[in-house]
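Design request, tokens follow.
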């Protein structure tokens, strides 16, 4: 978690504030390290336990493009229907012909 600590200090982010937690998570979405995905998913899941609507809003915006591990960790405490919904967003985005999948291929 030292990377998250250093990010929060560098960007002057208050980890106890849910808005700042979501900002950090957004910064780490493109990280290529699986352990960062796990830590970020844990951070989202934990914050979502207190600020559920913030988590759902974050997932609505990013679930389709989040790394799978990060998504799985962050939705762990949601009910089955919600988990299926967010995992379904991931599947739709990765299908050929979808707008988000096409954007990924162009990068």
């Amino acid at each position: 978690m030292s990377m998250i600590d250093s990010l929060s200090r560098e960007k002057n982010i208050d980890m106890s504030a849910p808005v700042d937690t979501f900002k950090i998570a957004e910064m780490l979405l493109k990280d290529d390290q699986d352990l960062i995905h796990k830590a970020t998913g844990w951070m989202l899941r934990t914050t979502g336990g207190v600020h559920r609507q913030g988590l759902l809003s974050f997932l609505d915006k990013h679930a389709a493009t989040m790394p799978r591990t990060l998504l799985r960790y962050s939705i762990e405490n949601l009910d089955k229907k919600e988990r299926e919904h967010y995992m379904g967003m991931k599947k739709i985005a990765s299908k050929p012909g979808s707008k988000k999948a096409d954007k990924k291929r162009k990068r």
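Comment from the thread starter after seeing the answer: thanks! The chain has seven helices and no strands.
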